[in-house]
Amino acid sequence: MPDIIDILDEILENLRKTGGVEACAAVSRDGLLIRGIIQKQQFAESFAAMAATMLGAAETATIELGKGVPNRVIVESDQGKLIAVGAGPKALLIVLVDSNTGLGLILLELEKAALKVKELLT
Amino acid sequence: MIETGIPKLDEFLGGGMPKGKSLVYFIQPGVEGEVFGMQTVYSALKNGRNCIFVVSSTIPDIIRGQFKEFGWDINSYNETFFCVDAYDPLIGAPSKEKYVVSNPESIEEFSKMIINIIKDSPPTTIVFGSLSTIIDLCGEKETISAVRDWNKMAMLYDHVMIYNFTAWPYSEETLNSIKGDLFNAVISIGGIAERVIFGQYFGILKSDWTKEIKKSMLFRVLRPGGIKLYIPKILVTGPFDSGKTTFVHALSTRAISVDRLGTTIALDHGHVDYKGFSADIFGTPGQERFDPIIKLLSGESMGVFLIVDSTNPTDFVRAKQMLEITKSYGLPMVVVANKQDLPGAMAPEEIRKQFNLPQDIPIVSVVATDKKGVFEAFEVLIDKITEGRI
Known about the structure:
The complex is a heterodimer. Chain A is 44% helix and 29% strand. Chain A has three helices and five strands; from the N terminus they run αββαβββα. Chain A has helices at 2-17, 44-64, 104-120, and strands at residues 21-28, 33-37, 72-77, 80-87, 91-98. Chain A has a five-stranded antiparallel beta sheet, sandwiched between helices. In chain A, helix 1 runs antiparallel to helix 3. By secondary structure, chain B is an alpha/beta fold. Chain B has a 16-stranded mixed beta sheet that branches. In chain B, a hairpin with an 8-residue loop joins strand 8 and strand 9. Chain B starts with 8 loop residues before the first helix and ends with a helix.
């Protein structure tokens, strides 16, 4: 049991080390924080709930419209970006990125991490 | 009665531990369990009792530092708190403590020290920081038989004995006697992983002075703060304009909402800290067009608040429908009869009739705008949630 948490922490730690990533977390599909690396820990739960809702709403919308499951949700603002990707049927991953980093490498790393989390939690 | 200081546990134990009894915190490896013994120490000191902490896994100064991390100032209890140092002699370091076990690898030395303390001290709460370390140093059979003696002596001299024990793979015999007849009470502390949430729980395996209780509680360890009971998800649902968002905000220490024009479109999320409990509250939208989102958010809830507008009986049909959407049937539930201050509000019992609610679902009168009844509803739901789970 503790092993899963350790592995999850390591996946998140690696993700966090990618240039430009400010915070990242693994969240259950229904909005509960599983593990996260976030500076303002007291906001972590809300952050998790919001991100799960965003991805869930996006999935519902695209599926209803006959466009399949979205690969990810990216929210861009002047101060930064928030990305949420599904990681298997039980979880999703979210990262917070600063404003002046390109997304290429981050999306790649995120995809890899999501695959690992999917393996881990199914 | 001596309190253990763990929220809800004292209540489960009928007020705490009677003098002369022994209790073990039976901890699964990998779970933060040592804090249980420490929280018991602090609670005993705060209640003006004498306390002795047997340190065998690290130097006493580090333990004192750990107490500080939890925000428990034990240094002001110089007169009533003492450590038994069973670590420094192992590494050949000098000890500053009043009691020192000169050779912690010898159970005879250990026993001599403990028995002396038991005989010479006024009624004291004696807490062993790590029984497993003593077993590792002195051997399984030897330690078990020594503990048996200590507990007997403690009974004679009215002490309370508390042990932290981490359940490493010892022999079946050792584990069975620790879970079985060695102690008056066994509190099991473990982790859950089969669902997505990685939680930690404690529950009473046995206690010979209370009726059998099959209850268990999820908890988190906070620094500072210690053990807080934790409920990862409570759902707040109900028809449009029944006051769900107001309720979430009234109850929460901090809360955020995603709403437009006064109606929730995605969710309300709130965090509650109340009477040793912490809980995360998820409020759903009420309007039918958001039903897909409601479905999405409602998984894994441990309890449900169903909010209804007491002045509006037509609400009840939709309320029932929402219980179906959120798959809330069978979960612990409290019906919150909101807007009790408005003219024409129905009394809870009238609502029960209209709604056809079974007697075992509590209805609480609430005025969410004035925070009236909000925490009563929370307590009622908590009671429902802790009832009968294991």
